[in-house]
Amino acid sequence: MNILLVGATGATGKDLLELLIKDESIKRIDIFVRRDIAFQNDKLHVNIIDFDKPEQWKHLVKGDLLFSCLGTTLKAAGSKEEQKKVDYHYQYQFAKSAKENNVNTYVLVSSDYASTKSVFFYSRMKGQLEEDIKVLNFPRLIIFNPPILLRKGSNRKAEVVTTKILKFLNSLGLLKSSKPLATELLAKALLNSIKMSGKAVQSIKGQEIMNYV
Q1: Domain of 70: which CATH number?
Q2: Alpha-carbon span 69 to 66, nearest angstrom
Q3: Coil, helix or strand for 145?
């Protein structure tokens, strides 16, 4: 199996890449990044690209399956427009290129509460991405809607505070569907999902993800 991965330098992407490399059923892994990475492996192919120039790289998005783990925070992006460029436009362009190149399966890491009707910018943006990718009509589309993610060694203040609050509420039996999820568990679920039979369009939400770990 030949795998494509965008978002390989993020927390979930890194964990997923480690699993892909160890998986003997996977023969080739193409990742798409802004700059080279130190890690090397015989089946890993690093494509250094300018995400803003799809005409230069869209022909490279060829394989059996595309994992999309790309994403950023509003603070890191600097503005809603820049965040949307990464979380929506880049991911949609990769999906579109994959479909044009006959990639059979697309696996998207979206977010909890993604909805085009949300009053929150981030959730609304994620919901719009999901809906627009569905229109591309991949033979198989798997969308993951994880709760807040636990990243190894994360020092993001908002993330740390939110995680502590959720853990406290979970201990009281509240908001169990929003229990924080470690990125390494999400990565395992992503990989296992492609090895299980499922519907043409499949949404895996919240704690349902643990059924694939």
Answers
A1: 3.40.50.720
A2: 10
A3: strand
